[in-house]
Design goal:
CATH topology of the largest domain: L-amino peptidase D-ALA esterase/amidase
CATH superfamily of the largest domain: L-amino peptidase D-ALA esterase/amidase
Number of strands: 15
Largest sheet: 9 strands, mixed
Shape: globular
Number of domains: 2
Distance between the termini: 44 Å
Strand content: 25-35%
Number of helices: 11
CATH architecture of the largest domain: 4-Layer Sandwich
Order of helices and strands: EEEHEHEHHEEEHEHEHHHEEEHEEH
Structural class: alpha+beta
């Protein structure tokens, strides 16, 4: 497997674009004038099999319901998305989500049901559909086989960096590519976070196999990310497969399926890590791996409690080796484990240091610990010594900047 450039337009037959049209009130103006890109489109040259996962928040934005309906038959042709407004819990939200698909169809010569639709931004405000109506012909006109970068930027909200990846793998003697763009920075506590991920592939695979792979991978990647404990109304992960790699269609969970699964997993894990590392105001990525567990579920619950703990996150911001906060978070996770068996260590590219053994503190070099915890990525390793299962979850530190960003998010 090889990582390549190109994002969602790396697989054969996919075009993408991103433009500014003035969705956000503070960006209102004439489409094409200077402003942050806020309208994205991805289109395949031919019909795709499709699958998607959605937020588990009971309050779901209208675009999710529209997409669910459009993907019910397991086929799709493209995705249209806006940033700057979540189109959730707002007047005319369902009508405007449907309208976005109608506008995308009119601009591309396709049908409204050929499109998945997504939105991200402020909840409760009426979507500026007039801006989207003016911008849709422009974004369709700029569709390009090199347009992934523009689309990736157009779906960003408080993200500080674009999130994009593509990998290629040989399946049945044919090069198959999987590409993705994603956004997510705050309101991230998946099942799924304000998280959108759009995945494209030229693999020939049935919608059933595509759905099985996605629904198995998302819980092990995106749903193991937490930034701030808030599960968004708009989270969505959509994958489109157009079959243009011309591999023998994957219809069973055979060796070809395993190769595709691994490629999709790598793409999703990379995007999940990118979202965690770009948490609002974050200065470092926190990875927690729990090993020696009695079950994967136990390991996941413990790891997510650690990376989700405000006290652990604050300690990581201060590069403070306060390992007691790790055990504390594990203790209220409601996962079964024996504290007297637990070992905890911190590591980064500056080394590794054991700070707790058998549930008790050990002497360690505070200066070395500070150096280890001051790096861009810190790993908290927890060994339960109770079994053979493990899980990894991702989060970020809690900084002053997070409060600043979310204190005036609507302004």
């Amino acid at each position: 497997m090889k990582t390549i450039s190109g994002g969602v337009t790396a697989p054969k037959g996919f075009r993408a674009a991103g433009v500014y049209c003035g969705v956000k009130a503070s960006h209102a103006g004439v489409p094409g004038t200077q402003g942050k890109p806020d309208l994205a489109m991805i289109v395949s040259d031919c019909e795709c099999t499709a699958a998607a996962t959605y937020t588990l928040n009971r309050v779901k934005a209208a675009p999710l319901y529209v997409t669910m309906g459009h993907l019910e038959d397991g086929v799709c042709r493209g995705i249209v998305a806006n940033s700057g407004n979540a189109n959730a819990c707002a007047p005319l939200s369902h009508e405007n989500a449907e309208k976005m698909c109608e506008l995308a169809a009119a601009a591309t010569g396709l049908k409204p049901q050929d499109f998945a639709v997504a939105s991200t931004g402020v909840i409760g405000q009426t979507l500026n559909i007039a801006a989207i109506e003016k911008g849709m012909p422009m974004v369709a006109g700029e569709l390009s086989y090199e347009g992934s970068d523009a689309a990736a930027h157009a779906i960003m909200t408080t993200d500080t960096v674009k999130k994009e990846i593509a990998v290629t793998v040989t399946i049945g003697g044919k090069p198959v590519t999987v590409g993705a763009i994603a956004k997510g920075s705050g309101m991230i506590h998946p099942n799924m976070g304000t998280m959108l991920c759009f995945i494209t592939t030229d693999c020939a695979i049935t919608s059933e196999m595509l759905s099985d792979a996605l629904h198995d991978i998302v819980p092990r990647t995106f749903n193991r990310v937490t930034v701030d404990g808030d599960t968004s109304t708009n989270d969505m992960c959509v994958v489109l497969a157009n079959g243009m790699a011309e591999n023998t269609q994957i219809e069973w969970k055979d060796d070809d399926y395993t190769l595709f699964y691994k490629a999709l997993y790598q793409v999703c894990e990379t995007m999940a890590r990118s979202i965690a590392g770009d948490g609002e105001g974050a200065s470092r990525l926190i990875t927690c791996t729990v090993t020696g567990a009695r079950s994967e579920e136990t390991a996941e619950r413990l790891a997510k409690a650690v990376v989700g703990s405000s006290l652990v996150k604050a300690a990581m911001f201060g590069a403070d080796a306060n390992w007691g906060r790790v055990l504390c978070a594990m203790g209220y996770s409601k996962a079964p484990f024996r504290p007297e068996y637990v070992d905890v260590s911190f590591s980064s590219d500056q080394g590794e240091i054991l700070v707790c053994q058998h549930g008790t503190g050990v002497d360690f070099d505070e200066d070395l610990a500070k150096k280890i915890l001051s790096q861009d990525e810190v790993v908290i390793a927890v060994n339960l010594h109770e079994g053979d299962d493990q899980a990894t979850c991702w989060g970020c530190d809690l900084t002053y900047e997070y409060v600043k960003i979310n204190g005036d998010y609507r302004s």
